Amino acid sequence: MNMNLNILYEDATLQVVEKPDGIDVEEVQNLLDDGFSLAHRLDKDTSGVLLIAKTQNALSYLQKQFQERMVQKTYLCLVEGNFTENEGEIATLLGRSGNDRRKQKVFLPGEPGAEGKREATTYYKVLKQYKGY
Prior knowledge:
133 residues; alpha+beta; four-stranded antiparallel beta sheet; globular
């Protein structure tokens, strides 16, 4: 594995690495040792933690956890504008973009193409406010 990726944890079946923004997960996959597989994806412009399975059993187990929504994901972001509430919930639908199948798109219920899209719920909490953000 290329040491440019910071390894946060490793055991016999799993490797956890820090993915910087600006790197596509396909680029990360190309850096992995033979037999290692990404258990999930992060957008190119998103930095974060990637789980890498070192065995087929580990890959199947991790993918099942994601598919069954057993994994809780936490994101920290800077948002332009101001929230009217300090915490809340955003419920929408998520699916492949019709314009670019490599990208995800948010669909509103009832919007053309929204049928069959998966539900996506985001719970947010404002940690700090900055002027203009």
